Amino acid sequence: NPIPYQSIAYNGNRLSHYCANQGKCFITREILDMDNIHCHHITPRKHGGKDDYGNLILISENVHILLHAKRSETIKKYLLLVKPTESQLAKINKYREFLNLEKIEM
User: Fold this and answer.
1) Residue 1's pLDDT is what?
2) CA angle at 4 for the pair 51 and 74, rounded to the nearest 5°
3) With a threshold of 0.85, does the pTM exceed it?
4) Three-class secondary structure of residue 56 per DSSP
5) Judging by beta carbons within 10 Å of its beta carbon (0-12, 13-18, 19+), is residue 93 exposed, middle or buried?
6) Which string of b and e fits 10-34 if b means at least 16 CB within 10 Å?
7) N- to C-terminal Cα distance for the chain?
8) What's the burial of 44, exposed, middle or buried (CB within 10 Å: 0-12/13-18/19+)?
9) Beta carbons of 9 and 51 less than 8 angstroms apart
10) Residue 83, pLDDT score
């Protein structure tokens, strides 16, 4: 299911991550269905991030929204939906740090 407007590297690495993680979200380990797969750049493109395998993780849509969320209402809503464990929240905060976003506290 390639994304037409993305690079060959992005699509190839996205598929490689899906296989390597057995179709599971990198953060929550939940099974991802085709409508719920989001590919996140660890170092954002606007900060020079590339489509390399090491700069991508596959996550669920809700986790992706939570990674990028800035408004407290949005963070609260998606914390309730994702219900991250302490270790999952630590991973979320690790990737939020790359985006220069505040740490989420429970």
Assistant:
1) 76
2) 70
3) yes
4) strand
5) middle
6) bbebbeebbeeeeebbbbbeeebee
7) 36
8) middle
9) yes
10) 98
Percent of the chain with pLDDT over 70: 100
Q: Where do runs of H (alpha helix) occur along the chain?
A: 8-20, 61-68, 72-82, 86-98
CA-closest candidate to residue 98, choices 56, 61, 60, 59: 56
Tokens 């991030």 belong to residue? 49
Identity of the residue numbered 39: C
Residues in the chain: 106
Written as six digits, the tokens of 12 are: 């190839």
- In this structure, are residues 24 and 32 in contact, taking their beta carbons and an 8 Å threshold? yes
Do 57 and 17 contact (CB within 8 A), yes or no?
yes
What's the pLDDT band for 43 if we cut at 50, 70, 90? very high
Label residue 100 exposed, middle or buried (CB < 10 Å: 0-12, 13-18, 19+): exposed
